[in-house]
Fold this sequence. Notes:
Residues 10-34 are annotated as: Disordered. It comes from Streptomyces tagetis. This protein is mostly helical. The chain has one domain. Helices cover 77% and strands 0% of the residues. It is built from three helices and no strands. It has helices at residues 3-15, 43-80, 84-146. The longest helix has 63 residues, at 84-146. The radius of gyration is 30 Å and the shape is flat.
Amino acid sequence: MAWDEWEELKAQAADRQPTRTRLNQYPADQGGDGTQGDLVVGHKDLEAVGKAAHDLYDDFTAYSGHARVASEAAAGGLKGEGFALGSALEHVTERWTEQTRTLLDACAHISNHLRRTEIRHASDDAHIHGVVSSIAVLDEGFDTRKGT
């Protein structure tokens, strides 16, 4: 491409509608309860995300393993016959394995984090219940001393 052609293409691009960044958000004029920006997630929502991450982990482990084994066998066969494609396929298989590990690690992290979050919230709920219950017992003691 010649320099003049490059300059012409740049000028044509500048004449077109400029690209703008647009942030997606909930439009303020569409109602709502005035709590814009609050994130509310229920136990069922977290459970569904955790289950999906766990299922993806299990399924992808099995299916990616089949693909890896088949690709390694094909790469070995091609290399053994002297085809350069064998080395290329071997390289792709190595990258596939690395990317698979990354995805599986992410799925495990999500699933485990949500499981720990659920356990932690249950523990917090039990603690809060204990504190509130002890306050109620304390209040009863004051009410009893007052004679009410």
